[in-house]
């Protein structure tokens, strides 16, 4: 975007120069802005604030920090401890975890110059430490702040949520209200996210009620987070009701609706919601990368992926341009994906009427099957009569497989054509789609074409390897991920623990489990504990597995981990521990037959399968012995 040619030479007055500099930065003309800045004979704090904000906005933290350093060295008459300039420097540090040393140096500078007394600067420092993964330093800074306001409290709560300490975040939320600080919409949204991450529906309802009292529950920021909280806690109807009460829905609201349907197995409703979004918004609300990722997830979950082939929205201006569609076509052809390339090229423009006017851009078109001619139908009927049943079944399966593959590749072509193929959310959704369909090779191709600093795509590929039993490749990928400086999240650790479990690498799995807690500061969930219990159980280390469960936080200890232990006991014939595990599973799921079956099989393996109260309980559950009398079913 450009505002026209830049006049040669800077204006003679600082005010005029700063005005032009601001206009260039806001127009994303950063090179021209830097040229003007360098030629300015007189620069003040406003000049530096404007140009540094431009570099921060352009995701160039090193450029922003270089300018801050230049301000201190070349323009000593200016105040480098200006709160606005210093907060921008902290914001630059927050964009990259490798810049933690820079944040620490700026922290020392703020203490030395007394700029730390500004709540504005101190809050920016809390946010910077939080985003580079140092929650402990963020908490220390907050405790040392002389003044605290709603922004600093919200930054602290966000820090705890980002670190996975959701219960601590909610306690901090309560402390904030006890201190008499009035919450704003951002505070309520962060508190609701903590409830969603911890699965605490009751607390979420409480936060909802408090937001409603202050009239903030209908604001888009709170409503979208509130809906997501209800959906993640298993109440899709409540989440949709919240979004339904919004007067006008933004792209976040529509994306939340689509993603909620996709995550709860209602993929058809997700695509229908996408169609409604395009029809009702009339181009005012354009889908973003998160919307397309949700649509891709819905298509991946459908029984027939081919339905996703027609899910194409025009999106931002230029999506339908022939030149833009030609590039992905040639790219796909170069990779040997001729069908996907031709499908993408065939759909490069919307259908036109007889006068050449394009059809409505706000409609969602599904690929309609071609109507066969009567002759082809008769020929097909004759072939069907001649073909044996098994041949027809194999042919139908082959046709369905080809159709689904075409749908997947057309979705991939759509993502490339719309310029979103390299986006983190879309790339990870494509990887997930290919993994679920068994196309691990295509998933790898998407992964190697994605950004190398995208932790989401790395995690998706890691999970794909683990899901397909490719444990060695999963472990190798995890090591590479850590080597290049990417911080694994909880999902990545689930994948690597599952890979260790399948590969039988007990010590390595325990090492990763400890690193998750000690090195990365992530609080394990029941899924992580379940993987460790399964890992130890498969190795026959039953008592160690039981100890892991006993050391778990009470809130994470449910029937899932006890079932994993019971499974291991059944495989090893461990009666004593198995009995304790079965009792815990029965407490959590009193009507389930699984623990009774497992214990009966343990007794049967030890020669004590008949007689006693266990057999009576099995019959009460409606179960009977398998042929031979040694197993229950």
Automatic annotation (TrEMBL):
Annotated Basic and acidic residues bias: 613-623
Segment forming the signal sequence: none
Residues in coiled coil: none
Low complexity bias: start-end ranges: 388-400
Keywords: Repeat, Transit peptide
Statement: the UniProt record of this protein carries the keyword Membrane: no
Transmembrane segments: none
Biased segments, Basic residues type: 624-633
Repeat (PPR) residue spans along the chain: 44-78, 149-183, 250-284, 454-488, 525-555
Pfam families in the record: PPR (PF01535), PPR_2 (PF13041)
Single GO biological process annotation from the record: RNA modification
Composition-biased stretches (Polar residues): 352-362
Gene Ontology MF term list: RNA binding
Region ranges (Disordered): 343-406, 608-633
Protein name: Putative pentatricopeptide repeat-containing protein
Organism whose genome encodes this protein: Ananas comosus (Pineapple)
């Amino acid at each position: 975007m450009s505002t026209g040619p830049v006049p040669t030479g800077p204006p003679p007055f600082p005010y005029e120069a700063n005005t032009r500099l601001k206009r260039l930065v806001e127009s994303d003309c950063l090179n021209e802005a830097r040229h003007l800045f360098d030629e300015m004979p007189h620069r003040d704090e406003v000049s530096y604030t404007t140009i540094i904000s431009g570099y921060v906005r352009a995701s160039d933290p090193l450029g922003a920090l270089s300018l801050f350093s230049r301000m201190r060295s070349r323009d000593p008459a200016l105040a480098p401890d200006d709160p606005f300039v210093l907060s921008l420097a902290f914001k630059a540090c927050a964009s990259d975890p490798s810049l933690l040393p820079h944040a620490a140096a700026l922290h020392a500078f703020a203490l030395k110059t007394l700029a730390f007394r500004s709540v504005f600067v101190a809050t920016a420092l809390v946010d910077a430490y939080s985003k580079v993964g140092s929650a402990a330093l963020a908490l220390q800074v907050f405790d040392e702040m002389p003044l605290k306001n709603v922004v600093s409290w919200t930054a602290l709560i966000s820090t705890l949520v980002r670190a996975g300490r959701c219960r601590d975040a909610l306690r901090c939320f309560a402390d904030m209200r006890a201190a008499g600080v009035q919450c704003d919409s951002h505070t309520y949204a962060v508190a609701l996210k903590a409830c969603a991450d911890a699965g605490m529906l009751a607390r979420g309802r409480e936060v909802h009620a408090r937001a409603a009292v202050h009239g903030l529950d209908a604001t888009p920021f709170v409503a979208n987070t509130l809906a997501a909280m209800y959906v993640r806690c298993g109440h899709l109807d409540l989440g949709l009701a919240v979004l339904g009460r919004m007067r006008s829905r933004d792209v976040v609201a529509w994306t939340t609706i689509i993603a909620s349907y996709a995550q709860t197995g209602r993929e058809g409703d997700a695509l229908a919601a996408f169609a409604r979004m395009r029809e009702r918004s009339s181009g005012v609300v354009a889908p973003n990368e998160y919307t397309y990722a949700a649509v891709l997830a819905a298509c991946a979950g459908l029984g027939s992926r081919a339905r996703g082939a027609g899910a194409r929205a025009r999106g931002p201006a230029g999506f339908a341009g022939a030149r833009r569609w030609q590039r992905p076509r040639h790219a796909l052809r170069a990779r040997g994906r001729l069908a996907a390339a031709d499908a993408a090229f065939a759909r490069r423009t919307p259908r036109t009427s007889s006068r050449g006017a394009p059809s409505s851009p706000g409609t969602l078109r599904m690929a309609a099957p071609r109507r066969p001619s009567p002759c082809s139908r008769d020929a097909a009927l004759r072939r069907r009569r001649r073909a044996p049943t098994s041949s027809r079944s194999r042919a139908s399966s082959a046709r369905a497989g080809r159709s689904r593959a075409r749908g997947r590749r057309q979705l991939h072509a759509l993502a490339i054509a719309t310029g979103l193929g390299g986006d983190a959310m879309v790339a990870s959704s494509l990887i997930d789609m290919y993994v679920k369909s068994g196309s691990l090779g295509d998933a790898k191709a998407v992964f190697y074409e994605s950004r190398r600093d995208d932790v989401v795509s790395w995690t998706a590929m890691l999970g794909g390897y683990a899901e397909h039993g490719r444990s060695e490749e999963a472990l190798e990928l995890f090591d590479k991920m850590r080597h290049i400086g990417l911080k694994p999240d909880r999902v990545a650790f689930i994948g690597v623990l599952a890979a260790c479990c399948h590969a039988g690498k007990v010590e390595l799995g325990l090492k990763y489990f400890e690193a998750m807690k000690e090195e990365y500061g992530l609080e394990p969930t029941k899924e992580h504990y379940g993987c460790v219990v399964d890992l130890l159980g498969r190795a026959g280390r039953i008592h160690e597995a039981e100890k892991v469960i006993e050391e778990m936080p009470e809130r994470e200890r449910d029937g899932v981990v006890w079932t994993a232990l019971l499974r291991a006991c059944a495989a090893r014939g461990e009666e004593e521990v198995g009995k304790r595990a079965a009792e815990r599973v029965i407490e959590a799921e009193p009507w389930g037959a699984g623990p009774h079956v497992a214990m009966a099989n343990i007794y049967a393996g030890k020669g004590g399968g008949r007689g006693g109260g266990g057999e009576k309980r099995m019959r009460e559950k409606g179960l009977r012995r398998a042929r031979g009398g040694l197993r229950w079913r």
